[in-house]
Amino acid sequence: MKDIIEELEQRRAVARLGGGQKRIDTQHKRGKLTARERIELLLDENSFEEFDMYVEHRCTDFGMEKTKIPGDGVVTGWGTINGRVVYIFAKDFTVFGGSLSATHAQKIIKIQDMALRNRAPIIGLFDAGGARIQEGVAALGGYGEVFLRNVLSSGVIPQISVIMGPCAGGDVYSPAMTDFIFMVKDSSYMFVTGPDVVKTVTNEVVTAEELGGAMTHTKKSSVADGAFENDVEAMSEVRRLVDFLPLNNRSKVPVRPFFDDPSRLDDSLDTLIPDNPNAPYDMKELIIKLADEGDFYEIQEEYAKNILTGFIRLEGATVGVVANQPMVLAGCLDIDSSRKAARFVRFCDAFEIPVLTLVDVPGFLPGTSQEYGGVIKHGAKLLFAYGEATVPKVTLITRKAYGGAYDVMASKHLRGDFNYAWPTAQIAVMGAKGATEIIHRADLGDAEKIAQHTADYEDRFANPFIAAERGFVDEVIQPSVSRKRICRAFASLRGKKLENPWKKHGNIPL
Ligand code: HXC
């Protein structure tokens, strides 16, 4: 018996060493942790239970039969984050660059199946070079199976991907189908094909960082939802995110103890809106002042900054927030912000996370670049997402709600449950100047008359009461009591039941 236990320990020690000490040292020199070190940071202490530690590849081409490493380049298992079960797989770059073989794929598939069967989130830590080149089509088949499970799990369990090294091929397409992608600055890259292939095919010379670094994907492509300074920060921020998320689409959002009075008044909100209707103010300040303990987990902070998306808690329960940001592009909706917010609203709706919408939007951004880029279709994504969402929806118009953008931003007409406005709200087809120039075109040469028409328009429309008279706004509330009113609104909606007509699935304008 003693011998067997010794052998077990010995086998475990070999597996834990992955591709060997030299490659582990190289990993550390590059500022990266190993797969097991990452898992240790991500999960609660001693909660990790590993699966398939002894699995080896079965490839016999290119002399591969002589290089078998137990674990085959991926560490898989389950554990807990603040006591809640999550499934995990972490690519081990020290073993064939974390590349995916048929057996490596089987390990991931097993974890994906378990996560789906048990309705618990799955987290993938990626540091890998895609399909194992020596295995050819067997590896491609493996990816296909992984991709399929990404699709089937979508909307059922949260799927989170963290890119922690150079990732290519299948190791970017699988993350692309998950709910959130995070990257580590300066050590992680995502591309379908790397700089060398790019040079060969297109003659473009580009660095890995420019092609697929964290800045590229958080600011330009929007492929990634956030970037962190290093592996340690990435793991602790993923823990923070998981705390906001439900375990699956049938479980309620987590409710945590809270130490912030839901009736807390905030007098500073009464002066948040500047006197000049065209002056910007920081919508993030409002979000933070509404949230329990000012805790806001922002998603896609660096992309389409004219809209803010992220999670807060109200009375301890998770709420998704979408808010126009007047500090950037005056808070206009455009292609990028519509796509960003639509995806976020759909995530919230899929996982029964109530949505709070804060509105200050002068309309859709005009111009050829927007029209040629398909703003009609992309704007419609957000309209569609809000329209199909059946979760509790509370909307607060702080200032402008003009034109189509008024309808889009969780208006009453799209089944907003509570639609509040501050007294500073202006709900109209468009701003006073634009409106005057169209309906009084004949007076355009007469500045005095135009000024008078503009003032008349403002008197008539630059307020929330015309909408309130029609019931499009349920109540005009004082800014300082917003937290209390919004908390009460969501509390009253906890039993909400709303179903869309049966369909296989809608046809969102992709
Ligand atoms: C087998 C691989 C590998 C791969 C890396 N390695 N990628 N082994 N298959 N795909 C091995 C290397 O041989 C090396 O082994 C070790 O991993 C580290 O790799 P390096 O190149 O030394 O590291 P680095 O310079 O950091 O570069 C990392 C890299 C690069 C950017 C990932 O290795 C690379 O470009 N790999 C190929 C990427 C790729 O084209 N993959 C196929 C994608 S197609 P030793 O023994 O020296 O440590 C795909 C199809 C899926 O995935 C379908 C998608 C729709």
Primary descriptors:
single chain; 510 residues; alpha/beta; 2-enoyl-CoA Hydratase, Chain A, domain 1; 8-stranded mixed β-sheet; 7-stranded mixed β-sheet; 17 strands; 38% helix; 17% strand; binds hexanoyl-coenzyme A
Mean pLDDT: 95
Secondary-structure-based class equals alpha/beta
Question: Helical amount among residues, as a percent range?
Answer: 25-40%
CATH class category name of the largest domain: Alpha Beta
The coarse silhouette is elongated
Question: Unreliable runs, pLDDT <50, ≥5 residues?
Answer: none
Bound molecules: hexanoyl-coenzyme A
User: What name does the CATH topology of the largest domain carry?
Assistant: 2-enoyl-CoA Hydratase, Chain A, domain 1
CATH architecture descriptor name of the largest domain: Alpha-Beta Complex
Biggest sheet: strands, sense, closure?
A: 8 strands, mixed
* Rg value: 26 Å
Q: How many strands in all?
A: 17
How many domain units?
A: 2
Spell out the CATH superfamily of the largest domain. 2-enoyl-CoA Hydratase, Chain A, domain 1
Distance between the ends: 61 Å
The proportion of residues in beta strands is: 15-25%
The helix count comes to 19
